[in-house]
Each structure stands twice: as structure tokens, then as C-alpha cells.
Specification:
3 helices; single chain; globular; SH3 type barrels; five-stranded antiparallel sheet; alpha+beta
């Protein structure tokens, strides 16, 4: 007998929805959407922010809880010279 199980992505999205967590959704084209997951199905995620957006799953690259998204965004920011490790500064590399 085959047991019906929901895919891992459904469990993850349901957990975020049930916690009413703010999430950052990065699309494959690099656009960042922020909001709360209202609902989802096999093909789409309904994201609630200032309105409601229907986001097709095939366009989604990454879903990150908002506190994780802030760290991700900081990692993408270029560093200033005083934040570059000393060995790289001495070598003239930024």
C-alpha cells in the first residue's frame, strides 16, 4: 500500500504559514518579495503584504524566514574597506 505524504516543500510552507512568519521570497530573476504566506497549492503561493500576490512556484528560487532574509541581504552587500580582512587589504584586493 502506498502512503500519501506531502512533499517537504509543503511541510515547510505550511509551517511558515501557521507561524504567520514574515518571509522573503527570492524569484529566479532576482526580485525579492516580502510578506506572509496566506496559502499555497501545487503551483502557486499566495503572499500577503500591502495586498495579495499570487506567485507561481516555478518562478521561486528561495524562501527564507524574514530574520534569515536580513542576514542573507547583509551577506550580499559589498563591504567597506574597514570590513575587508587585513590580509586582503595588504594584498590590494577588495
Amino acid at each position: 500500500m502506498s502512503e500519501s505524504r506531502s512533499p517537504l516543500q509543503d511541510e515547510y510552507l505550511a509551517s511558515l504559514r501557521d507561524k504567520n512568519a514574515r518571509v522573503a521570497i527570492f524569484l529566479v530573476n532576482g526580485i525579492k518579495l516580502v510578506g506572509r504566506i496566506q496559502s499555497f497549492d501545487t503551483y502557486v503561493v499566495m503572499l500577503e503584504n500591502s495586498g495579495t500576490q499570487l506567485v507561481f512556484k516555478h518562478a521561486i528560487s528561495t524562501v527564507i524566514p524574514q530574520e534569515g532574509a536580513a542576514a542573507e541581504e547583509r551577506a550580499r552587500q559589498p563591504r567597506s574597506a574597514d570590513q575587508v580582512p587585513r590580509a586582503r587589504v595588504a594584498a590590494g584586493v577588495k
